[in-house]
Amino acid sequence: MLEAIRRAADGMIIASAVEDVNQIDHMLQQNGLPYLLIDRSRPEKGDEVDMQNEQGGKMVADYLHQMGHQKVAVVITSELTLNLEHRLAGFMERMTELQIPVPEELIFTTQLSKQGGVDISAAIWEAKPTVVFAINDEIAIGLNRGFNDMGLQVPEDISIMGYDNIDMAEYTIPALTTINQPAFEMGETAAQLIIERIKNRDKAPQHVTLPINLVERQSVRKIK
Question: β-pairing, 178-180 with 213-215?
């Protein structure tokens, strides 16, 4: 980011894991650099392309409820960015509404990576949930590998639900059920908005919300 400022960039699109949006806002506003956030909570004067993370979390809860799951584990990371916080908050809120408790012993913390999923898989299996909601697909893919290494079958022994619909999600065995975020449209919209901002810095804050949808594959079984 500092390098972009030094090189006198005309504008900046921020799509990385941002924890302190206000700090970024202060830095870039101080340097007069227009910017736009992708999938992060926007500051009061900033532009954003939003991906409905809270609603996405609720979609996960609704789906797992429809599939009959009553003992649900959740895997998060210790350093939740704002988009992941909203994702988790939406999920937990809807689970409460559905009267499906998620006790502390079923909330697991690991690295936000495939290896993080592998590392936590044994502890999750010990807790014996029927399904695991991983806060992103990277963790979910790692869980699938970890369970497989233990000789378990997904979803027969334990189900996995992801989030993001990254490219690899449809190529895992079984293919991963997840929430889709339209990555191409997200980038295209961000480019259009930052160009508009560069042309007109006095334009009102731009906030575009893109649709999300559930992609049902084979990693979550229905409990009768």
Answer: antiparallel
Q: Measure the CA–CA gap between 91 and 85, rounded to whole angstroms.
A: 10
What gap in Å lies between CA 176 and CA 217, rounded to an integer?
A: 6
| Rounded distance between C-alpha atoms, residue 56 and residue 60, angstroms | 6
Q: Work out the pLDDT band at 224, boundaries 50, 70, 90.
A: confident
pLDDT at position 117 over 90: yes
Residues 6+ apart with CB under 8 A from 195: 11
Residue ranges of alpha helices (H) inside 31-170 are 53-66, 82-97, 114-127, 137-149
Kindly give, in sequence order, each residue whose CB lies less than 8 Å from that of residue 163, ignoring residues fewer than 6 positions away.
Answer: 56, 60, 87, 133, 134, 135, 136, 137, 140, 178, 179
pLDDT at 201: 77
The reported pLDDT for the residue numbered 3 is 47
Please state, in angstroms and rounded to a whole number, the distance separating the CA atoms of residues 162 and 185: 20
pTM given for the model? 0.81
Query: Which pLDDT score, from 0 to 100, does residue 189 have?
Result: 82
Q: Are 57 and 90 in contact (CB under 8 A)?
A: yes
- Is the pLDDT confidence value at 12 over 60? yes
Residue of 21, 86, 13, 20 lying closest to 49 (CA atoms):
13
List the Cα angle 71/51/170 in 5-degree steps: 60
**Does pLDDT of 29 surpass 80?**
no
Residue 103 corresponds to which tokens in the numbers above? 């006790």
